[in-house]
Amino acid sequence: xxxxxxxxxxxxxxxxxxxxxxxxxxxxxxxxxxxxxxxxxxxxxxxxxxxxxxxxxxxxxxxxxxxxxxxxxxxxxxxxxxxxxxxxxxxxxxxxxxxxxxxxxxxxxxxxxxxxxxxxx
Length: 121
Fold this sequence. Notes:
5 helices
């Protein structure tokens, strides 16, 4: 199993856990909530892929945008800071990077390539 397949399976497990949590919280309305959540999860992932990978590949411009987001969101760096408020803000930013990589189903090789991009242009 390659890295992209592992990422898809991980995302599927997260999606299913969200559906089950929503069903528990919703009580008797679980059927409507489940249908809505499943539709929203699928549409969101497809929308991210259409924006960043319209032809199935990351273009050079999109790679630079993702590299900038990776740096801004502490995607590959430690978020530790002695000040808990600063660290919380950094963790929030990092959560955005994790969401992007999950929705785009980026495999390890693509993430490594993004890490090597020099944004000095």
